[in-house]
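Build the 3D complex.
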Amino acid sequence: MLTTHPFDDDKLREECGIFGVSGSDSAAALVALGLHALQHRGQEAAGITSFDGHHFHTHRAMGHVAGNFDSDSVIRSLPGSVATGHVRYSTTGETALRNVQPLYAELQSGGFAVAHNGNISNAMKLRRDLVRRGSIFQSTSDTETIIHLVATSNYRTLLDRFIDALKQVEGAYSLLVMTPEGMIACRDPLGIRPLVMGRLGDAIIFASETVALDVCGATFERAVEPGELVIVQGTEVRSIHPFKQQAPRPCIFEWVYFSRPDSIVDDHSVYSVRKEIGAQLAAESPVEADLVIPVPDSGVPAAIGYAQASGIPFELGIIRSHYVGRTFISPGDNVRHLGVKLKHNANRALIEGKRVILVDDSIVRGTTSLKIVQMMRDAGAAEVHLRIASPPTKHSCFYGVDTPERTKLLAHKLDIGGMTDFIHADSLAFVSIDGLYKALGEAQRDARPRYCDACFTGDYPTTLTDQDESAEVDQFALLAERVN
Amino acid sequence: MLTTHPFDDDKLREECGIFGVSGSDSAAALVALGLHALQHRGQEAAGITSFDGHHFHTHRAMGHVAGNFDSDSVIRSLPGSVATGHVRYSTTGETALRNVQPLYAELQSGGFAVAHNGNISNAMKLRRDLVRRGSIFQSTSDTETIIHLVATSNYRTLLDRFIDALKQVEGAYSLLVMTPEGMIACRDPLGIRPLVMGRLGDAIIFASETVALDVCGATFERAVEPGELVIVQGTEVRSIHPFKQQAPRPCIFEWVYFSRPDSIVDDHSVYSVRKEIGAQLAAESPVEADLVIPVPDSGVPAAIGYAQASGIPFELGIIRSHYVGRTFISPGDNVRHLGVKLKHNANRALIEGKRVILVDDSIVRGTTSLKIVQMMRDAGAAEVHLRIASPPTKHSCFYGVDTPERTKLLAHKLDIGGMTDFIHADSLAFVSIDGLYKALGEAQRDARPRYCDACFTGDYPTTLTDQDESAEVDQFALLAERVN
Amino acid sequence: MLTTHPFDDDKLREECGIFGVSGSDSAAALVALGLHALQHRGQEAAGITSFDGHHFHTHRAMGHVAGNFDSDSVIRSLPGSVATGHVRYSTTGETALRNVQPLYAELQSGGFAVAHNGNISNAMKLRRDLVRRGSIFQSTSDTETIIHLVATSNYRTLLDRFIDALKQVEGAYSLLVMTPEGMIACRDPLGIRPLVMGRLGDAIIFASETVALDVCGATFERAVEPGELVIVQGTEVRSIHPFKQQAPRPCIFEWVYFSRPDSIVDDHSVYSVRKEIGAQLAAESPVEADLVIPVPDSGVPAAIGYAQASGIPFELGIIRSHYVGRTFISPGDNVRHLGVKLKHNANRALIEGKRVILVDDSIVRGTTSLKIVQMMRDAGAAEVHLRIASPPTKHSCFYGVDTPERTKLLAHKLDIGGMTDFIHADSLAFVSIDGLYKALGEAQRDARPRYCDACFTGDYPTTLTDQDESAEVDQFALLAERVN
Amino acid sequence: MLTTHPFDDDKLREECGIFGVSGSDSAAALVALGLHALQHRGQEAAGITSFDGHHFHTHRAMGHVAGNFDSDSVIRSLPGSVATGHVRYSTTGETALRNVQPLYAELQSGGFAVAHNGNISNAMKLRRDLVRRGSIFQSTSDTETIIHLVATSNYRTLLDRFIDALKQVEGAYSLLVMTPEGMIACRDPLGIRPLVMGRLGDAIIFASETVALDVCGATFERAVEPGELVIVQGTEVRSIHPFKQQAPRPCIFEWVYFSRPDSIVDDHSVYSVRKEIGAQLAAESPVEADLVIPVPDSGVPAAIGYAQASGIPFELGIIRSHYVGRTFISPGDNVRHLGVKLKHNANRALIEGKRVILVDDSIVRGTTSLKIVQMMRDAGAAEVHLRIASPPTKHSCFYGVDTPERTKLLAHKLDIGGMTDFIHADSLAFVSIDGLYKALGEAQRDARPRYCDACFTGDYPTTLTDQDESAEVDQFALLAERVN
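Done.
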C-alpha cells in the first residue's frame, strides 16, 4: 500500500529496523523518532514496547510510524525510561498484528520483549521440536522461536537461558531484548545485520543505522560487535562475548541500497561509497553521451560519482512526483497502463535528441528498468545506456531480506547480452564484484571475503537448515489459524 | 458501552454464551444467528472459529454480534461445515481482543479451538505451575489454562489429553472444542452452567439456551448431561462420561434472570417459572394497592404472575425508550443527573395518586431500586411497594457470573428493614428461598439441594482454590503486558 | 440500518421531531437530551444548531442522537444559550447530510436557521418559481423553500418577511426558527403536527412531544396553538396570530402510533387513549379465547385495554430480543428466511394448544401481520384472532408522514374478508372510525371532524398542489447533482 | 497534515489546480490521474464532477487525490464522458467540504458546475450586493459569486449569462464550467493563472499544467489564451473572445516555484528556466566555495545551473527522508525541537570542513533558511553561503496564492544585510528582477512588463476592490455558520 522509493517495485527490501533506549524520561518518544528515521527498513508495520519499572506497555500498528506513533496519547500510553521499537516488512503473506514486533511473553522470570532484525535459518526445525514438547506459538514469526527456547531452557538465570537459546539458532540476528532487569542488545557471530550504539546525555541508545542517532541528537559511540551481548541496566553498560569467535561477514548490500546515504556503516560513509561505485563504473564501463541521469532517488549518489568521474553533465531527466508516499492506484482498465508516469515523468525538453546514461543501484526482476528505458525513448532520447551500481543479483537472501524466488531474478535467467536485449538499452553494464570491494577500500574480493555478498556470489556464510526441509514447512503452514 | 436491559446497571451478569454447529454448509452463518440469540449472555465481545477440513478461520470483534458478524464478507471468511462461537463479558478490566474466544492454539496434533462458558476456580494456581515449566500464555483468560494442560499432557491421544486436563481443573465449565477430527461438547460434573444439544437436518447443534435453537429453526434434542463429553465427527455423535458421578447443581439464577423467558432450561419454561415466582410473592407478601407495575423488561413475567394471583391490574407505569441499545451519555455536568429518564420515564397520567406495587427480579447494589422508587414518587404515586422475585443476593459467584465485591451487595450490608429505608419504599419483600424452589416444582430447599444457589445461601458446591491465594494472583497481574 | 419498534417494517413513520431551547447555559446539551427522547420520530439523521450571540454553530450527523450528540466535545462545539435540533426520516431516497436539519442560510439580516416537522404540499411549485428568479437551492428539502421565500420577500423586517413566506406555503408545518434576534416557534393554521412549550427555570423550551420536556426535567406549559407564532428573545415571550383563523385538524395518528405512550397530546394521555381503543375493540369485536397477546411493543397498551375489558388474561406470547437497536442482517442465502425470529420468538410453552387474540396498532402493507400470525400457528396456537387498534389505513399522507404508495396499502387493495384470508387469521377486526373518536372523548366523527384522519378517510384538510403536478416534479429530480 | 516539498513550511502556495475532459469513456478516471499530477498545486482537498447526459455526479474529499479518488468504486460513481476536477488549498481557515470544488448549482437551465483556479478580487463586494437581493450562499468561496451572477443575470442564454457574470468580476480566474450542453474553459483577460488544452484521441482536455497532459498520455495542443472562452460540446470545439483585449500578465512565480520542473509554461521549459536562473545567480553573485548544495527538492534545478556555471561540484549535502508524504509530529515536549531533522539530515561526512553554497528557490518568512543554515554549521561547514533563485518577496498576492500577511515577509522587514544576519549566513544573495526576466528570454523588465511580478515589485495589474473594504469583510465573517 505504501511505497517510498520511486522505483521500488523492483528492489530488494530490508526487512527490519530496530531501535532501543535505556535511561531516558522520553524513552518512547525517542524510539518513535528513531523508528521514523529507520522507516525505509520496514514500512509495513511498527511497534514499541516500554517498561515503567512495573509493567510492560506495547503499541503495535500496521503502516507507518508517522500517523501511528506520533500522537501524545500514544506516547503517553508507553511510560517508562526503557523502550524498544521495530519496523518491519513481512516475508510471508502473514501481515497480522500478532506478528508485529516487539514480541512479548510472560516467563517465570517476568516479562520478556524482543525486537529482531534478521532471519533465523533453522526456525522451522526448532519450532517443530518445541511444539512436540508442548510449547504453544502465538505467531508465525521466526523470532518467537527464541522466546520459547528461553522459556524452556534448563539454565537458571535469564542471561544463561538467553545465551543457551542463541546457541541453538543459526542465521542472522541483531536483537534488542527487554526484561525487568534491563536491556540486552546483541548481534549474531557473523554480524550479518548492522547494529550501533550511541548516547544522548546519560541514556544509552541502540539503532540499526547511525541516521537514527542523528535524528535524535545522539552521538554515535560504536558498532555492536559481531557475537557481542551488550547488557544495559539503567545507564550502566557491560559487554560479554559468549560465542566462539569468527571472521565477520556484514551484509554488503547495506552500502549498495539498504542504508540511508547519510548513515555511516562500519566506518564507511554510505554516500561516499555510492559515489565511489559510480566512479568505478565510469572507469570500468565508459560511454560517450550527453547527459548522466539518475534513476531517482537511490541512483543519485552513484550518478553524481559517474558524472564527476566522466565529466558528462549530471541532469534531472526524470522528475518524480512528490506524492509517492501514498500510491495512487490508476482506476479503471483503460487507464491502468498510465500508472508509471504518475510516479515519474521524463523531462522531455531536456532529453529530446540526447544520448543519455541512466544510473541505477541494482536490477532485481528488471521490470522497472524496462519501463524507464522506454520512458527515455518516448521522450526522444537518441541513445540510452544503463549503468548499475552493483554486480548482477543472482541469488536469494535468507538473512532477513525480501528477495523474489531465484527464478525471477533477471541476472539468474539471462547473461549481460540477454539482459541488454530484455530492457531494450543501447548498452548495459554492472560494476564488477572487485569494483564493489574497491569502493569499500579493499584491493579486491579475496578468498576470505570480508562481507556477505551471497546475493551476488551464492557464497552463504551459514548453513541453511530450513531450506533443506521445505516440504515439512508447508505442512506446518497447513495448520495455522487464519484470523479474519 | 452497550446496555440492553433497561435497568441493568444493577444486575448480575452472565459472562458467556456458546454455540456450535457440526455438519452444515452454513455453519458459520448459523453460529452467527445463534450467538445473536444469546447476545444477552455476553455483550462485550464475540468470536467465531470455523474449520474447513484444512484450516481454522477465526473472526473476533469487540461489541455485538449484529454489526460484526452479519456481513456476507465476514461469513464467507469463515468457511467449513464445523464452527463454534462465543459471546462474552469480561470479569476483569482486560477487554483486549486476545482474550476474546474461541481461543486457538496449534498443538502437535493440529489446531485446537475452545469456547468456554463458566469459570475455572483454580486457574491461577495451574497457570503458575505451567509457566514454571516453560509454557507461554497468550491471554489472561482462565480458559487458556485448559489448552496448555492439553499441550503438555503425557497422554498420547488428543481425547485422553483433554480428559487429563479437565481432571485437573475445578469450577464451572461448559465447553465446545474444535479439532481437525471433530467437535467435543462437555459440561462440568456438577452441570453448573447450561448446555443443550439440537438438530437441524443432519447438523448437530450445541447452545447455551434453547432460544438459540428456535432462532435457527433447529429442534431441541436434550441437555448435555453434567460430566458428559459429546464427541461429534461430521454428523456422527457418541458420548462418554469420564468423571466420577456427582449429584448435579445447575445454577438457579438462570431461571431468575440470566436465561431468556422463551427458553426452556432443564424442562422448566423460564417464563412460567418467573410467573410462578410472582404468584408465590403475591401469596407470601400481599399488599393493598391499585396497580402492579413491572420494572421493565425483566420484571414483566413476575409482575404478570403477581397481578393474576392478586387480582390487582397490571399496567405499564414505566415507559422505556426504544433506544437503549446504544447508551446515551448525558453531556455536560449540568444535565448529567437527568440520565435515568433517558431510559425510562414514569407514565405520570397513570400513576398520579395511585398505590403501586413495583415488581423486579433481583436487587444487587440497590442503586436502581432507589431511583425507580423515587421516579414513582415524583410522578405522584401515593404509596410504593417493591416486590423482588428472588431471595436476597448476599454472596459472590465464582462460576462465571460477574458479581460485585461482596461488600457492595445491599443484602450483605442491610437487613430487610435497612433495605426498605435505603430505597425509601413503603414496603419491600423478597420471595423466600423455599418459595423459589416451589416455583421450580420442589416442595422446598432441602439438605441436598438440587441447584447451585450460592449467591443466596453461600453454599458453594466446589472448592475455590484461587480465592484462598489471592495475594499471589495480584503478583501475577503485575507482570502482564499492556497492549495500548 | 437502525430499527426500533420490533415489527416496524410495516408501520407508518413520523418524519420528524423538533426541540428548541432559549435562555439556558446548557442549551445544546438540553437539545441533545430532548432529541434523544424524540428519537422515535426520526432515526435517520439528526442536527443541532446553536447561537452564541455572534456565530451560529451546527453539527449534523447521519444516524441516532446517541453516539453522535452525546460527547462533551460535540456539545462544547455548540456554545450559546439558544439552540434548536431536529431528528428526521427522509421521504425520498436522498439521505445526504445537506438535507439534515436545522437548515441554515445567511440572509441580509444575518443567520437564519430552521427546523421543520411536517411537509409543504406546494414546495415543488414554489421552488420552480424561485429558481426561475435566480435562487439557488442547496438541498432537495421542501423546507428550504421557506428560507428562499424569506430571502426574496419585499417586506422590510425579518418577521414580516417570515410571515409573508408562510402565507405562500400550504401543508403541515411546526417550525423552530433561530435568528440573531431570537427564536420563533410556529404551527400551521390547522395545527396538523404537534408542538408544545415548556419551561425549565427561566429557559423556554419547545418540543414535538411532552416526553421530551419530562426527560429534561422541564414543566409542560401549553401547546403552541394552530396558526400561532411564539417569539422568544432570551427568556421573554410574545405571541402573534397572523393567519385567518380556521378550525384545527391535528393528526389523529399521533395517538394511534407516533407519539410515545407517556406523552400527553392535546390534553389526552396517549397511554389512556390506546387502552381505551383496546376497550372499544373488545366491545366492538369480542371473541372467545384463552390469551390476549400484544404485538410488541406498540400493541401493548391496547392489548392491556382489551384484556381488562374482556377479562381474558394478558400474557407475553411473543418475546422480543433486547438487541433490536441494531439490526442483525442474516448472512447467507440459506439462513436469510430465519430473520424474523431474530427479533421475536414465540413463547411456545405458553401458546401451545391455546386460542390467542393478537392486538396490534395498525396494518399498513400486512407483511408483518402475515408473519406473526404464522409464528403463532408454528408455536401450536389452536386459533389466532387479530385485533387492530385503528381503522383500516387506505390513503397516503402528504403532511410529513412516510406512507407507502397507496397501491401498496393492504386496506386499499382488499376488504376485511380479503385481508383475513391474506394474513391467514381465524378472524380480523379493526376499531371503527367512530370508536377511535370515542376513545378521544368524542361522541363520534361528525361532519366537521376535529382531527386530520385522511389516512383512514381520504378527507384531506388542505389542497395538494404538488400532487397535481407530479410530472414536473420528476423533471426536476432529473437535474439534481448526485454527491457520491 | 500533509506536506510535500521538504522545506515547504516557508513557501508561497499555489491555491488550485484544475483539470477537465470532454468526450472520453474514461472521463472521471482521466481527471483523477490529471489531478494527481497537479497535486502540488493544492493538497488540502479535491473534487470531481461528471455528467452522464442526464445527471451530474460529484465526489469531494478532504486530503489527497491518492486514497480518495483512486478506487474503482469512486470512479464508477462518476459516470459520463465529461468530467472536471479541482485540487485546492484554502486561503482562509474554512476547510469544510462545502468549499471544495467543483461547486454545483441547479439553475433554471439545469445543472451548472464550476472549478476555479485564481481569486476574484471584488468577490466580497459582489456577494453583499447579491445577498441584499435575496441570493443565499452555500459556501464562503469567492467562486460561488460567479454562479449567483449567472443565476440572476437578465440575459437569456446561459452563455450570455456567463459572459455577463465574468464582466462583473475582477481578478484572476482560470475556469472550467460544465453544463448539460457542454464544457466551457476560460482564462481571465490578463491570463494571470495558467490553463492549457490537449487532446487524447478524440477527447479534449484542459489542465493547469502540461505535466497533467503527459501523465494521461495526451498531446499538448496550446495554451488557452488570456480572455478566451473555449466552448466544447462532445469533441467539437469553438472559441470566442468576449472581452476587450489587454496585454497579458501571466504569473512569473509559476516558473520560480509553483509549476513542476517537467511542465512547459507558455513555451518555456520550467526546468530550463530554473537552471538558467541558477546560472544568472552564479554570474551576479559568485563566491569561492567547495560544494554547491541544493535545498531539496525545489532548489535542485537552480543548484545544477549554479554548479555548471561556476564549476563548483554539485553534491547532496542534505538528505531528505522519503517519508515526508505524511508529516511525523514529534511527540512530547522534550523531543519537539528535533522535528526538522525528521525531514532532512545533513550529510555530515560530506560537509565537514567544507565551504558550501546552498541554493534555494525563494525566501518567504525566513524560518526555514535559518534552520538549514544552522544544520550546515552543526555538520561542520566552514562557510555557508545562501543563494536564492528569485528576487526578494516583498508583497502579498491577491490572485489565488496563499501569502502570509505582508508584515511577516522577511524581505519586507529587512534589507539584504539584515536578512543575512537573521539567517546567520556568511553571505546571502537573490537573483535580480532583471536577471529573472533574462532567464525567461527577455532583455530586462521594462516599463510594460510581460509578467505579473507583484509579489516582488508591488505592481498589481488589476484593481483590488475588496482590499479597500476589509472592515466590511470582517462583519461578514461574523455571520457565517460554523459546521462542527
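The radius of gyration of chain B is 23 Å.
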